[in-house]
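The following record pairs a protein chain with its ligand, NAP.
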Amino acid sequence: MDKNPQKIAFLGLGSMGLPMAARLLDAGHPLTVWNRTPGKADPLVAAGAVRAASPAEAVAGADVVVTMLADPAAALAVAESMIPALRPGTHWIDTSTVGPDTVRALAARLPEGVTLVDAPVMGSVDRAAAGELTVLAGGDTTPVAAVLDRFGTVTACGGPGAGAALKLVLINVVIGGVALVAEALALAEALGLPRELALRTLSAGPLAGAVARATATGSHFPVALAAKDVRLATGLAELPVLDAVHHALTRDPALAAEDLAAVAG
Ligand code: NAP
């Protein structure tokens, strides 16, 4: 860590934000944190972070602002409070999965001298804690490279919004793959085949990665957030298979808070 580590404000301390913020604190960055439900900041405050009472208070003295929020509505709500308090020279990294339209809407509201990098991530809570996420970055990452590197491996995707765009492509393949594995297992069961046999043989084929995700245990990516990502995609192109996947994800409300793997039983 250099002698003058960037001062960071981290907003959004859910399943992903909390371990990502912890990695910045561990690296020696002065860290101010804000979360809508304040108690989620307690472990970070106990470890040395400063708790802010509002998004505006959190970002007031920051060199770098990181947001990790649920969806476009959350990002826009936090931006409403935070943007007027951003001082020139601040670099904002949005790691939420919100799609390129929201990134563009946020970028259009930036004050003079403030930059925005869209940097949604692939990988769940286990990889967030280990600093092994895949970070899909849109825009100029140079001023925030040290921060992004703490999260994982950075893939430069192009200009502003390109990270958000590629994230929708990649995550929808994962979600669709898990949905397809779930149907393969339902078919195997209907045919009287053992689940273990079906999983083992599917793992030897082209859906191996989807089988691994459908049986993962260290992930916590709620089905409701997966459905949000599918909706973001189907709003941008005609995608009848993903329309059906959205239906499959939302037909049982009891699954909404469960990890995506629950879709495959
Ligand atoms: P999460 O645990 O549900 O956390 C969501 C965060 O957004 C919380 O801090 C929540 O605050 C905040 N929030 C929601 N609505 C808000 C509002 N209206 N105003 C202010 N704050 C609001 O979700 P997560 O799993 O960390 O996911 C965060 C983002 O990363 C999502 O876009 C998700 O798609 C993406 N992602 C998730 C995973 C994963 O495996 N979980 C992996 C890659 C990417 P409260 O604490 O007050 O509810």
